[in-house]
Write a structure and sequence with these properties.
The chain has 351 residues and is an all-alpha fold. It has two domains: 1-126; 149-351, no CATH class. The chain contains 16 helices and no strands. It is a multi-pass membrane protein. GO terms for molecular function: NADH dehydrogenase (ubiquinone) activity.
Length: 351
């Protein structure tokens, strides 16, 4: 796999540049397919049935979404004579394309592939799937944001926040918890894309850094379940503390960076008259807050002389926290950069 890493990174960079520089739907579809194919080796990098199952589910789901996108392009080209994503005039085709992009992102009710795929991947590979891989569909939704039906967008966002929080309550596998957290975070990111696309970019930026910090610390701690997390603070207190604060940032508690996009999203939804959407998502996010706080309690609050309800693992030499985790944690947990970006956005869009 190290031989293919430069190829994977180069391909992902090229596809990102295509998304940023083109509005032609077929070219963006090709970039989506390239990014899908290049992520498959990251998923199936081990000869393990779980990895093979995860890659199969991922490929079939992404292929279905890609078929819907190219179908929408073909019908729009026939009816309107245009291949630009910003010129899809038919509301039905816009809805089909938006739903296809929701499948690629993994929102409810198209979320079933996300936890199973993440469970079969390493934490480092999961970073690509949960952040970089979502950038292409997010850019496409950004370009077609004025055409998206807000009622459909709000229903999908409410369902994603509620179902992800509900399914995460009974989970003991941390990678699945991170997957459900990603679903809920993307719902908060996309619910406001029609009225404030720049706020969506800010929310995705903060989400990407925070979720990457969480996954890097989990890999550093070699933690796969909550039972293993109970002894993490004793083995690596600094890394465990970073995990704690990144989890609290994902939950949206102030004054951490994760609070900022949720606050601005609620403010903008109320300003647009979608009070019930904001209220419902806020109440549903309490479900996610519960398992965030449970992870925080298990990682940092079960210290001696308290009894940890888990089997003690063999003590290995404690590794120092690397520079990547420290730098990403600092970027994720400070509000200085986020506040500067918020000020620029409010001046630009006037809310």
């Amino acid at each position: 796999m190290p031989i293919f890493q430069p190829i994977i990174l180069t391909t992902l960079t090229i596809t990102t540049l295509i998304f940023l520089s083109s509005t032609y739907l077929v070219l963006m579809w090709v970039a989506l397919e390239l990014s899908t194919l290049v992520v498959l080796p990251l998923i199936a990098n081990k000869s393990h049935p779980r990895s093979i199952e995860a890659s199969t589910k991922y490929f079939l789901t992404q292929a279905t979404a890609s078929a819907l996108i190219i179908f929408s392009w073909a019908l729009n080209h026939i009816t309107a004579g245009s291949g630009q994503i910003t010129e899809v005039t038919n509301q039905a085709l816009t809805t089909i394309m938006a739903l296809a992009l929701f499948i690629k992102i993994g929102l409810v009710p198209f979320h079933f592939w996300v936890p199973e795929t993440i469970q079969g991947m390493t934490p480092t590979a999961s970073i690509f799937l949960l952040t970089w891989q979502k950038l292409g569909p997010l850019i496409m939704l950004y370009l077609m944001s004025p055409l998206i039906n807000f009622e459909i967008l709000s229903v999908v966002s409410i369902l994603s926040t509620t179902v992800a929080g509900w399914l995460g309550l009974n989970q003991t596998q941390i990678r699945k918890l991170v997957a459900f957290s990603s679903i809920a975070q993307m719902a908060w990111t996309l619910v406001i894309i029609k009225y404030a696309p720049s706020l969506t970019i800010l929310a995705f930026y903060l989400y990407s850094i925070t979720i990457s910090t969480t996954l890097l610390t989990l890999e550093k701690l070699s933690t796969t379940s909550i039972n293993n997390l109970l002894l993490s603070f004793q083995k690596a207190p600094i890394t465990s503390s970073l995990l704690t604060v990144s989890l609290l940032s994902l939950s949206g508690l102030p004054p951490l960076a994760g609070f900022l996009p949720k606050w601005l999203t609620i403010d903008q939804l109320v300003a647009e008259g979608a009070i019930w959407v904001a209220f419902t998502m806020l109440m549903a996010s309490l479900l996610s807050l519960f398992f965030y706080l449970r992870l925080w309690y298990d990682s940092a609050s079960t210290l001696p002389p308290n009894t940890a309800n888990t089997q003690r693992l063999w003590r290995k030499p404690t590794q120092q926290t690397n520079l990547a985790i420290n730098s990403m944690a600092m970027a994720a947990l400070t509000l200085i950069l986020a506040a500067t970006m918020m000020k620029a956005i409010t001046k630009q869009e006037g809310y």
